[in-house]
Amino acid sequence: MTLTLPTAPQQEFLTSDYPCVMTHGGLHNPRCIVAFPLDPRSAFVATSDNESRCRLLSLDPGAIALALNESVVVQAERYVYGRTASEVAFVESRLHTAEAGM
Fold first, then answer.
1. I need a labelling partner for 55 at 20 to 30 A (CA). Which of 5, 29, 48, 90 fits?
2. CB distance 42 to 4 below 8 Å
C-alpha cells in the first residue's frame, strides 16, 4: 500500500542515503513492515499480513511520518534530505543521537 498524508500534514517525509526501514528484525518475521519515503507527501509501506496493515491504517498519518522520519534519520549514513529547512533541528537532534551510540 502507499500511504499519502493529508493535504496539510504537520510532518512531511524526509529521505536519506539509506531510507528503507524494516521493522520486527527484518523480512524473516511475518510481522515485518517495510517502508520508505517516496516524496514529501507519500511513502511506500509493505506488510505481509492483514493485521499489520489494519493496525497501520488505524494510526494517525502524522505519527507514522514522525516514526518513519526518525528511523530514516537515525539510520542515515551521511545525508538526509527534506523539502525545506524547517526540518534541520529535527535532523540534527537525531543525527547526534545516532553518532553518540557509535
1. 90
2. yes
pTM: 0.82
The mean predicted confidence, pLDDT, of the chain is: 83
**Number of folded domains that form the chain:** 1
Tell me which residue range forms the domain holding 91.
2-100
Amino acid at 95: L
Residue matched to cell numbers 507519500? 42
DSSP code string of 33-64: EEEEEEETTEEEEEESSHHHHHHHHTS-HHHH
3-state secondary structure of 57: helix
For residue range 15-61, list pLDDT tens digits in order.
999 999 999 888 888 888 999 998 888 888 888 888 888 888 888 88
Residues 1/53, Cβ–Cβ less than 8 Å: yes
